[in-house]
Amino acid sequence: MALILFLHGASSSGKSTLARQLRLRANRPFLHLSIDHLRDSGAWTPADYPNWRAARPGFFSGFHRALAAFADTQNDLIVEHILDTPGWQADLQSLFAPHDLLFIGLHTPLETLRLREHDRADRPQGSAEADYHKIHRGLTYDLSLDGSASPEDNAGRILARLQAPLPRSAFFAAPKNLPD
């Protein structure tokens, strides 16, 4: 059984920075996986998918199954994701069911998201704000963190939570309201 640390938050909320800090401080190896890694490596580019709307369901279905395959072969994971599409959580619930999972909500103030998105310049302006208004709706987390807090402090809170056995994750409960 693998351990999955599922980081969920708006674009520019600090998921990648937190994941890097977790990997530095954890006493076990974690694979850190996200769609951004595929894009940044050149494995795919937006130009590869001229009809992204049509390709998106298959792309994410493959990504979800790849995550599960890593976990199924006993790799502990840090997963960065944004559950912005109806059905994704249910799909991942099924795929991740055999594993321990800590569902972590990264809540970052809107002004911080705007500043980070502007400074990054690798995201469509306004995507973080759009996420901010809907991304956490209806979800219950095992651990909620302030994305404007230091990554070191947030990593420490996660690692402290891992010192005791994990109960069944809130991730596996049905969301109360799906994001629009």
Automatic annotation (TrEMBL):
Binding site for ATP: G9, A10, S11, S12, S13, G14, K15, S16
Annotated active site: D36
Gene3D superfamilies: P-loop containing nucleotide triphosphate hydrolases (3.40.50.300)
A GO molecular-function annotation: transferase activity
InterPro entries cross-referenced by the UniProt entry: CPT, P-loop_NTPase
Superkingdom of source: Bacteria
Name of the protein this chain belongs to: Chloramphenicol 3-O phosphotransferase
